[in-house]
Amino acid sequence: MLSFRGTIAEGCFLLLLLVIACALALSAALLLSQAVRTTPNHSYAENYNLVVIGASYVVVLVASLAFCLKRRLAVRRKLQRISKAYRTLQKGDVPKSVHEYILQEYTRTCLVAFESQPRDGVQEGWGRPGSKYAGIQFRRALLDTIPEIDALAHLVIPRHPPLRPHDRMLHQFRFILPLLPKDKDGLTPLHYYDSVIQLARHSCKEPTEGEYELGWKAAGEMKRILYECRLEMLEGASSTDLAESSDHD
Predict the structure, then answer these.
(1) Which residue ranges run through the membrane (predicted)?
(2) Can you give the residue range of the structural domain that contains 99?
């Protein structure tokens, strides 16, 4: 919008200059012809009126160019005096009315920005702002736990089957099922984890915060147990190596 207005203003300015130039040229031609007709010999020779008229127009042209040049240099000097570095404006740097207007607009902008901040916003599938789950996308976070558990399962059971994208978790991690504890209903963390992952994979609705907490807790319990099994395996291997070294000695 500003560029369009600037184009219109520049075009009007150039049109005005063209009209003035045409008017001056026409007036000069008419005055010169009138000066020739009023002389006794009706000739350009020894016609001092032509010199006066020509000199007048030359003086006007030079004065106009000098005025434009002076104005251009004055504007350029003022622009050069503007500081290029960031500096806070003080009351004495600008007129009082300008300073009050800048202060008013700055205050209004700050109020608008403050009022525009989200408060108690809830977006389906995401943690609420201000809570411990803020900025977490529940579906993505739950699905990202699958390769982590699979990597730990391969450390504990090297022959564990490779991860396939469409297998249920109960089938994928069936070999670690005996390692997991059961609750009073006879269900292991893997059962809860499988249910939540199925919802995250195939449900049209985004997981809720409760479903995310259930799945995250189950995944954490499974990773903890697999990590403890891995530590026991390493400790057992170290004890075996130490015993073999003692026998050789």
Answers:
(1) 51-69
(2) 85-117
